[in-house]
Amino acid sequence: MLNKSVFDFLLELRENNNREWFHANKKKYEAAKKNFQLFVELSIEQIKTFDPSVSGLNAKDCLFRIFRDVRFSEDKRPYKTNFGAFIAKNGRKSRYGGYYIHIEPEQCFLGGGCYMPASNILKAIRTEIFHHPEEFKEIVENSEFKKHFPELYGEKLKTAPRGFPKDFEHIELLNYKHYAVSKMIDDSIVNSELFAKEIDNVFKALHPINRFLNEIVQDL
Question: Which residues constitute the domain of residue 67?
């Protein structure tokens, strides 16, 4: 179970997003981070029971830094107001499809797949779907998948991607810029013993699309 200290810290940070407060409360941050890291370790153990590709990972491979890169942003707040982890082969910077946990009061979600894939990966995914549309449709139209993820995440191209025929019967499957999904999770679930079961259910439903994507990525 995720410790309440994680939420408490993030709520305080939201109201005091400055370096002076952060340094004065560094012990709170370290305690919250340690608890989230432990939770991610346990989540990895859950996931590898149905997706062995995450075996060998540890939470440190998967956790994102809380420090924001403000060099090119108008928003100069120095810290993120969430904890996040991407569980996938090779960790948080992986090009493989994986499983994402986002903890932020009132904005918690679970997700995964390939978010912002590199252009060569995106083209390879579209090409595989073009040649095997029924296989991909079977995944994204599965009732268990749709229960958690009614649609794929993000913007779509308005016309067929370059190199693909506009009259392709399933062109809507090729127009995505990401092959990723997300599901919002209520804070009451996140802060209860039900969260581990929710992770198990959601990520098991996500596994087939990750398997499809990763068979493509591993050949590049």
Answer: 4-217
pTM exceeds 0.85: yes
The pLDDT profile of the chain, 220 residues, written as one tens digit per residue, is 899 999 999 999 999 999 999 999 999 999 999 999 999 999 999 999 999 999 999 999 999 999 999 888 888 999 999 999 999 999 999 999 999 999 999 999 999 999 999 999 999 999 999 999 999 999 999 999 999 999 999 999 999 999 999 999 999 999 999 999 999 999 999 999 999 999 999 999 999 999 999 999 998 8
How many distinct structural domains can be found in the chain?
A: 1
Q: Where are the alpha helices (DSSP H) in the chain?
A: 4-15, 19-24, 26-47, 59-62, 119-131, 133-140, 143-148, 187-190, 194-217
